[in-house]
Amino acid sequence: MDSERKDAEVVTIDVYAAKNLLSQGHRYLDVRAEEDYKRGHVETALNIPYYLNTPEGRVKNPEFVDQVLSIYGKEGSIIVGCGTGTRSVLATTDLRNAEFNNVFNMGGGYKAWAGNGFPVNKSDSVES
Predict the structure, then answer these.
(1) Is residue 57 annotated as a catalytic residue, yes or no?
(2) Residue 101 · residue 77 · CB < 8 Å
(3) Where is the Rhodanese domain positioned along the sequence (predicted)?
């Protein structure tokens, strides 16, 4: 039983709580693919994809935790979001397991954020 991995607890918050925390200094980490991020994202969001699109298909970003660490540090106050809230749970779990302690998953993702009329940034063009 000692060899079993126990995932750290992920706390999921709704978009209203996320918006409130962002106004208090938390930072938003968008873990969607770069092309999705460019189509529209939460204002002030930083994009570090959890999955990468490769010629072999979609693969987990092997540098994800290190990339987040280099920008936010383990003590950073981070809200993790994706398109609908599924991928962000996986990303938040990885961060919590890596001892990031002030990390929250945003339930519903960008779809819920934009659907509630909260501010978004959209790029006029998406590069191929």
Answers:
(1) no
(2) no
(3) 22-122
> Is 18-116 a CATH 3.30.70.260 domain?
no
Distances (CA, A) of 19 to 52, 79, 87, 114: 27, 10, 19, 12
* Catalytic residue of the set 10, 18, 42, 82: 82
pTM for this entry:
0.89
pLDDT per residue as tens digits for the range 75-101: 999 999 999 999 999 999 999 999 999
The percent of residues above 70 in pLDDT, for the chain, comes to 91
Q: For residue 127, what are the CA distances in angstroms to 15, 55, 71?
A: 29, 17, 25
Minimal CA–CA distance to 113: which of 10, 12, 17, 11? 17
List the domain boundaries for the chain: 18-116
- The residue to which tokens 């978004």 are assigned: 120
Q: How far apart are CA 15 and CA 114, in angstroms?
A: 9
- Cα(35)–Cα(32) distance, integer angstroms: 8
Q: How far apart, in whole angstroms, are the C-alpha atoms of residue 98 and residue 38?
A: 28
Strands (E) in the chain, as ranges, are 12-13, 27-30, 41-42, 46-47, 51-54, 57-60, 78-81, 103-106, 120-121
